[in-house]
Design goal:
Helices cover 33% and strands 25% of the residues. By secondary structure, the protein is of the alpha/beta class. The chain folds into 2 domains: 140 residues, 3-Layer(aba) Sandwich (Rossmann fold), CATH 3.40.50.720; 175 residues, Dihydrodipicolinate Reductase, domain 2. Bound molecules: nicotinamide-adenine-dinucleotide.
Length: 354
């Protein structure tokens, strides 16, 4: 089978993770073109990564180049248009998370993929983590019993990536849509992808602009453009699923807490489990409460994480593997995000319609 020809749309921070993944697969794919509206960033990216063709307009790139698969790595507001253009040009697409600005956009993208018979994978990279693989094995073997309650936190004390991440017109929202999607999706993935039925959510924007851009971790590479700061500082929500499970989620860019935290807790009828960052199990054996910690390092290893995601995408696009993060999962997440923002705005529970 010929090498899969790849193009990248959006040559900012996360595209570096994507290109590393494609380079690691040079036996089955090659990056033939890239596109960014920032001509300087584009030229530098193409030079550093040895990409032969560059474009500032993805429609022109899709019309002129022979491309099999595309990574969409733009800011969120452009995910829908870039993805739909690529799908309509006959390409398979890996679209970064969040899938879109809202559910309506996500459904349009899913329908376009179906109409064209193309793969649309969503960048839920945590599904490819070593920690997710380990925990899922225990869950699928029934070791936790029925999981009926879960908690997921992704809290940063001072961690807005700056630029468009703080501007709702470009991002669709703040830490909920940026960080919350990762952990909500991970809990759904681990627990067999139940359907959300209702949410109660709150958002706060008490700290906002004073701290925008203070992030020490992930920082947008698009800081030279003027962006507003219009997103929430933090969000919290209770999400109910059709299998009876409830998930309590918390996400923040800015919050007066001591340390940044990110963990997942699952509570089942036989045992509980926690990723924080190593995996631990809590249960009962021989009438004793026991805490069980698998030997070795079970914490998420970022080395090779995106490579595993990209391998999953390329092999699925080639028909050699099953896609692990489908468009339908992206749509489910956008349903949840929309419902949380709606509930926060109205002060009432939001019912998720199908
Ligand atoms: N999976 C993860 O863990 C993870 C981590 C960080 C970011 N992301 C996601 O990746 C995406 C990009 O984030 P980033 O940090 O790389 O942002 P960034 O600001 O560093 O880069 C975004 C790039 O998109 C380009 N762009 C915007 N509109 C375009 C268009 N119409 N055509 C071509 N290029 C266009 C910008 O010029 C910029 O270079 C976001 O959706 C973000 O949520 C995912």
């Amino acid at each position: 089978m010929a090498k899969t020809k790849i193009a990248i749309i959006g040559c900012g921070g996360i595209s570096n993770c994507h290109i590393a993944g494609y380079k690691a697969l040079s036996d089955i794919c090659e990056v033939v073109a890239c596109c960014d509206i920032d001509a300087v960033k584009l030229a530098n990216y193409a030079k550093v990564n040895n990409i032969p063709a560059t474009y500032t307009d993805y429609n022109e790139m899709l019309a002129k180049e022979q491309i099999d698969a595309v990574s969409v790595c733009t800011w969120n507001a452009e995910h829908k248009n870039a993805t739909i253009a690529a799908l309509n040009a006959g390409c398979n697409v890996l679209c970064e998370k969040p899938m879109a600005m809202n559910e309506a956009e996500a459904i349009e993208m899913q329908k376009t993929a179906e109409k064209n018979g193309k793969l649309l994978q969503i960048g839920f990279v945590r599904r490819f983590g070593n920690d997710a693989d380990i925990l899922k094995k225990f869950i699928d073997a029934g070791d936790l019993g029925d999981i009926y309650y879960a908690k997921a936190t992704y809290l940063r004390r001072n961690g807005c990536p700056g630029g468009w991440f703080g501007d709702k017109e470009y991002s669709g929202g703040g830490p909920l849509i940026d960080l919350g999607v990762h952990v909500i999706d991970l809990v759904r993935y681990l627990t067999g992808c139940p359907k959300p039925i209702s949410v109660y959510g709150v958002t706060y924007d008490n700290l906002g602009p004073a701290r925008a851009g203070g992030a020490k971790g992930w920082v947008s590479t698009s800081l030279n453009k003027e962006f507003k700061y219009t997103v929430e500082d933090m969000a919290s929500a209770m999400i109910k699923f059709d299998n009876g499970m409830t998930l309590l989620v918390e996400a923040s860019f800015n919050l007066n807490l001591k340390n940044d935290t990110g963990n997942i807790e699952l509570f089942g009828t036989k045992a509980g489990a926690r990723i924080d960052p190593n995996i631990e199990f809590f249960g009962v054996q021989n009438d004793m409460l026991v805490d069980i910690r698998p030997a070795g390092n079970t914490a998420l290893d970022f080395n090779g994480l995106f490579e595993r995601e990209i391998r999953g995408f390329v092999t699925a696009a080639r028909g050699e593997s099953e896609c692990r993060a489908k468009a339908e999962d992206g749509v489910m997440l956008m349903k949840i995000i929309d419902a949380i923002y709606k509930s926060a705005a109205t002060g009432h529970e939001a019912i998720i319609e199908y």
